[in-house]
Design goal:
Blueprint (H helix, E strand, L loop, with lengths): L1 H14 L3 H11 L22 E3 L4 E3 L6 H4 L10 E4 L8 E5 L1 E5 L2 E5 L2 E3 L2 E5 L4 E5 L2 E2 L6 E9 L6 E11 L2 E12 L3 E10 L1 E2 L7 E7 L11 E10 L14 E5 L4 E5 L9 E6 L4 E5 L4 E2 L2 E5 L6 E9 L2 E9 L2
Antiparallel strand pairs: 1-2, 3-4, 4-17, 5-6, 7-16, 8-9, 10-16, 11-14, 11-17, 12-13, 12-16, 13-15, 18-19, 19-23, 20-21, 20-24, 22-23, 24-25
Length: 326
């Protein structure tokens, strides 16, 4: 049950923000300069997973911690859940995370492939655990990005998340969160993007990144997640490599309409929600309103200011932030 409790805690951290708070905080973050760029950039340690520490019965990616050392310390019944893989996006290696069923005398549990830039501390005597630390950071990235492949079993899902911390007077607070999750099988290396939601204008001093092959309480053994080439993005909006980069918003001032263009192959499951800077949902549109890859949203009566467009498609959420003029 120890691992199960650990995963439940991680999921709580990643998902505890409500949608309204998310929208408000993102809007507030850029209220003073909605089109700003952050120019200093932090590099994720071993984000390409080319460096690995070799141990007697397992390998761990350098700068990352995994449950491998704890699990392989179980006599006769230990298993690895994180592997060095030659199936890579580029370079020579990637990280392969596999959910395993661990069966030992008197107990059995499912354990996801899990890795963190922090430190996983497990006390097997008292059956307690903590995740501490992270890596230094002194800027405010807007996205965690990278490449992944996913082989789910049953209805399993994966998650890749980022947590930002700020220590003030000896107290460490969580000031930013972002995550990407998928339930869909992805057989080719695919780019992902996770928007980081900040709840303060402060600059973080510590960053942690976590990845899980199974991101739910009920896990399915052999669910496999591959991760490679993680990096931080600093642009407002989404880079051209993002699968949602084909979403664009045009303001037609003459007819007072917003025209949203999509490049999805199918719009059957597209849901578009528009929020103002106070977190109020001012419009929601579905597939019936999308024609030839185009959605029209009248904005008569809308206040000018920052708006957030959230588009849900194929199990993923894409975000567009824009300034609505008069």
């Amino acid at each position: 049950m120890l691992i199960l409790q650990f995963i439940t805690q991680i999921l709580y951290i990643l998902y505890m923000k409500t949608l309204k708070v998310f929208i408000f905080l993102v809007a507030a973050m850029f209220a003073s300069n909605p089109f700003c760029l952050v120019r200093s950039q932090t590099v994720i340690p071993n984000g390409d997973f080319e460096s690995w520490a070799v141990h007697s019965n397992y390998n761990d990616p350098t700068s990352w911690d995994t449950p491998n050392s704890v699990l392989m310390g179980i006599p006769f019944f230990g298993q690895n859940v994180v592997f060095q893989s030659t199936d890579h996006h580029q370079g020579s290696y990637s990280a392969k995370l596999v959910t395993k069923h661990i069966s030992i005398p008197g107990n059995a549990f499912d354990c996801p492939g899990f890795m963190t830039l922090g430190k996983l501390n497990v006390d097997l005597v008292n059956m307690t655990f903590t995740v501490t630390g992270g890596v230094p950071i002194n800027d405010r990235p807007t996205h965690l990005m990278g490449f992944f492949k996913f082989q789910p079993v049953g209805g399993d899902s994966c998650a890749i998340g980022i947590i930002m911390y700020k220590t003030t007077a000896g107290v460490r607070d969580t000031i930013g969160l972002g995550y990407f999750s998928s339930k869909t099988a992805v057989t080719d290396w695919t780019h992902f993007s996770a928007w980081i939601n900040y709840d303060t204008i402060s600059t973080p001093d510590t960053m942690n990144i976590v990845a899980l092959s199974s991101a739910q309480v009920v896990m399915n053994p052999n669910t496999t997640l591959y991760v490679d080439d993680l990096y931080l993005d600093y642009t407002v909006g989404v880079g051209k490599k993002d699968p949602g980069a084909g979403i664009s918003v045009y303001q037609d001032k003459e007819t007072r309409r917003l025209i949203v263009f999509f490049e999805f192959a199918s719009a059957e499951d597209v849901v578009a929600r528009l929020f103002d800077m106070n977190g109020r949902e001012v419009s929601v549109q579905g597939p019936a309103q999308i024609t030839n890859g185009r959605l029209v949203i009248p904005y008569t009566g809308f206040m000018k200011g920052i708006y957030i467009l959230m588009v849900r498609h194929d199990g993923k959420t894409f975000t567009r932030k824009f300034l609505l003029g008069s």
